[in-house]
Amino acid sequence: MSRAGFRTTAKRSKLMSKVRRQNTSAEMRVRQELRDLGVGYRLHAKDLPGTPDIVNRSRRWAIFVNGCFWHMHEGCKRGALPKRNHRQWLKKLEANKERDWRSLSELLDLGYSVLVVWECETRDPVQLRTILSTFLR
Ligand SMILES: [Zn+2]
Fold it and tell me: Which of 60, 30, 52 is nearest to 133 (CA)?
């Protein structure tokens, strides 16, 4: 393997070891939209199941901004698995997905409303605003 190839792999596995990547551009777009809507929130609630990206405790809602690849967005082009090391990726990403479901149901048990915003849904500001205002209504 070339050095460059190796570095890429090392970087990838470092990324893979993190369950949730924080402060992604998709997350920034959601935060901006919430600010525009005049909604208060806190970030990265480590004490809540799955460390939701955006939280409002008094109103009991939590938002996850999911990368389409890392959380295997179904039916989404960006959610497609690489052909190389396919089985390893599948195993890893399915574990992510299972963790997502667990966090979601634990949050619901705590009385939270939970919204999952997919990365691809943040690209259209009009669509994003509709998703967020519908959820917060
Ligand atoms: Zn997607």
Answer: 30
User: What is the 132 CA–ligand 1 centroid distance (Å)?
Assistant: 16
Q: Which domain holds residue 90?
A: 20-136
Ion ligand 1: residues, Cβ under 5 Å: 68, 73, 76, 78, 118, 120
- How far is Cα 47 from Cα 87, in angstroms, rounded to an integer? 32
Q: What is the CATH number of the domain that holds 89?
A: 3.40.960.10
Among residues of the chain, what percentage have pLDDT more than 70?
Answer: 85
Residue 32 lies in a domain: yes
Q: pLDDT at residue 3 above 80? A: no
